[in-house]
Specification:
By secondary structure, the protein is α/β, with parallel strands linked by helices. It has one domain: Aldolase class I (TIM Barrel, Alpha-Beta Barrel). It is built from eight helices and eight strands. The protein has an eight-stranded parallel barrel, surrounded by seven helices. The protein starts with 9 loop residues before the first strand and ends with a helix. Its cofactor is Mg(2+). It comes from Ruminococcus bromii. One of its GO terms (cellular component) is cytoplasm.
Length: about 210
């Protein structure tokens, strides 16, 4: 599955912190209905068995809507269920090794904070980069801040698509205009909202304006 930059416009990363009695699957479906273009399943605390069950369920949903579906970090599960790909951080498995396990037709995303990291990830076969945190974030304790100038330098240095991550919301997304990104990845801006479908639709419209003519 090739990684089309249009698919990276509004990249939703799951988080079970805001389920409030709902299933993750139903929340993801609401996000897709609102216009999320890419789904990443991120589970830091589930055991393999439950992670696998959930991954299969959300994969089925994403196939139904024809939305790319990747797994955060867990290359083993991504391979087992034949997910569309995987997203790895700097401390996780390096892109070249992931490629050897998953094969050439899978999407591999890599987190980067510097031009040097970005160029290395591209060299090792990453299909896209997630760069951030571009704003202060409550979702990741260890998120390093990346200035908007650095974000632009990364976009200019690589040939692969770059999405911005970290603390992005409908209130600040347009501040990223002109930096060269093809989209944004968000967690709470979608999943912590009372009306997920509406919040996603609003954020998508703003993101389209942000990346237009970049």
């Amino acid at each position: 599955m090739n990684c089309d930059k249009k698919d990276l416009l509004l990249y939703a990363v799951t988080d079970r912190a805001w389920l409030n009695g709902e299933t993750l699957c139903s929340q993801v479906e609401k996000a897709i209905k609102g216009g999320a273009t890419f789904i990443q399943l991120r589970e830091k605390n589930l055991d393999q068995k439950h992670f696998l069950e959930e991954a299969l369920e959300i994969q089925k949903l994403c196939k139904k809507y024809n939305v790319p579906f990747v797994i955060n970090d867990n290359v083993e599960i991504a391979k087992e269920i034949d997910a569309d790909g995987v997203h790895v951080g700097q401390s996780d498995m390096e892109a070249g090794n992931v490629r050897k396990i998953l094969g050439d037709d899978k999407i591999i995303g890599v987190s980067a904070q510097t031009v040097e990291q970005a160029l290395l990830a591209q060299k090792h076969g990453a299909d896209y980069l997630g760069v951030g945190a571009v704003f202060k974030t409550g979702s990741k304790d260890d998120a390093d801040d990346v200035s908007h100038d650095e974000l632009q330098k990364i976009c200019e240095a690589v040939d692969i698509p770059v999405i911005a991550i970290g603390g992005i919301s409908s209130k600040n997304v347009t501040e990223l205009k002109g930096r060269g990104i093809v989209g944004i990845a968000v967690i709470s801006a979608i999943f912590a909202q009372p009306d997920i479908t509406k919040a996603t639709a609003e954020l998508k419209a703003l993101t389209e304006k942000t990346v237009a003519n970049d």
